[in-house]
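Lab notebook, design round three. We kept the backbone fixed and only want residue identities now. Task for the bench partner: fill in a sequence for the structure below.
Input structure tokens:
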């Protein structure tokens, strides 16, 4: 068993690392301050094939694997998480459900555009009163005259309101089981469909250069053939998507954690206090050492989960562990990095200020830390 990267994976990692340092780092601070979506950067990522990394060439993908996506996410997040989450959500939440569960026609229609990065997809699960609790879903869809008619609201949906957003896959209650439980299905809604509008644009603590919107469906009609996967299996399909996505979010978290180490090492060598670099002080050395330990440990966790997934082995517990450990590492490292920087760490012009603002959502998005602990406990055989 080896955690050394293959030649292909290492080449990809280096390519994305160089792209992040030369193309993203010099300009992303301005996008972040303005709350603007970085279309040019996304277009360059698309041209590099990053949005198609884990998809077959027949759909316009790169023919790689999910681990390749994770490596790209880690390197991007070492510089900026807004760009990284745009890629993660575009692949894991936008394109992957169609690839995993979509019909042949849906794949042929949508995947080439999504893989090229010329179009983005989104997934609408969370609602004002429902997230991890599927029973709280209030959005409905019923068949009328051969069409699905959707009504409801979705919250916190990434990549849903950009100029290149092409579709959102929506979970909705499409009926009731005999015991009264909701039958939840996934339905593909193209952007621009009448009755599908953007609600409020959120004022966020972090990820300020990514797109996040509320979605409103009011008598929105799409063809019955827009059902993604089996009727009544929408939530189960999304749980599968989340299992994979947790590995990707773990990789993104590791990138942020490692970025905190990178910036702290540079600053500790440059900043002087009491006549010498602050990196000569044991208090700073120990703080940075602990930061590196967290990043290294979290990286091993997501490598392990990804290896199990690619081998076709069960990986639900390992994905939850990776997401929990890595998001904790990101939050802890962001806090310590801002402490190393002192007052400058409180300034958004420095990357660590953005890292601090971006880190918290990693303990919440795609399953809170409490949900990860619940999943781990259940996988250990503890009662539900």
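Proposed sequence:
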């Amino acid at each position: 068993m080896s955690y050394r990267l293959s030649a292909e994976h290492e080449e990809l990692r280096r390519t994305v690392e160089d792209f992040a340092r030369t193309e993203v780092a010099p300009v992303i601070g301005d996008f972040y301050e303005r709350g603007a979506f970085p279309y040019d950067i996304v277009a360059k990522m698309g041209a590099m094939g990053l949005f198609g990394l884990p998809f077959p060439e027949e759909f316009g993908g790169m023919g790689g694997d999910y681990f390749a996506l994770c490596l790209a996410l880690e390197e991007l997040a070492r510089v900026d998480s807004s760009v990284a989450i745009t890629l993660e959500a575009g692949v894991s939440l936008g394109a992957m459900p169609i690839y995993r569960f979509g019909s042949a026609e849906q794949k042929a229609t949508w995947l080439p555009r999504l893989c090229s990065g010329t179009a983005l997809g989104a997934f609408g699960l969370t609602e004002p009163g429902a997230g991890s609790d599927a029973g709280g879903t209030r959005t409905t869809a019923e068949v009328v005259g051969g069409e699905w008619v959707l009504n409801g609201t979705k919250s916190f949906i990434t990549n849903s309101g950009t100029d290149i957003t092409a579709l959102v896959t929506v979970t909705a209650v499409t009926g009731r089981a005999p015991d009264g439980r909701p039958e939840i299905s996934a339905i593909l809604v193209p952007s621009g469909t009448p009755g599908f509008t953007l609600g409020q644009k959120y004022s966020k603590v972090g990820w300020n250069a990514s797109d996040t919107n509320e979605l409103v469906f009011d008598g929105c009609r799409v063809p019955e053939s827009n059902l993604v996967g089996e009727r009544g299996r929408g939530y189960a399909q999304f749980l599968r998507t989340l299992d994979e996505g947790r590995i990707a979010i773990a990789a993104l978290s590791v990138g942020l954690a490692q970025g905190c180490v990178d910036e702290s090492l540079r600053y500790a060598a440059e900043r002087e206090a009491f006549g010498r670099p602050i990196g000569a002080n044991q208090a700073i050395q120990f703080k940075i050492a602990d930061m590196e330990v967290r990043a290294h440990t979290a990286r091993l966790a997501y490598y392990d989960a990804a290896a199990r997934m690619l081998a076709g082995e069960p990986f639900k517990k390992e994905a939850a562990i990776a997401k929990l450990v890595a998001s904790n590492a990101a939050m802890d490292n962001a806090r310590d990095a801002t402490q190393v920087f002192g007052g400058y760490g409180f300034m958004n012009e420095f990357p660590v200020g953005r890292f601090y603002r971006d880190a918290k959502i990693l303990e919440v998005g795609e399953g809170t830390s409490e949900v990860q602990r619940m999943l781990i406990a259940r996988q250990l055989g503890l009662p539900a």
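Keep this in mind before ordering anything: The CA atoms of residues 24 and 41 lie 7 Å apart.
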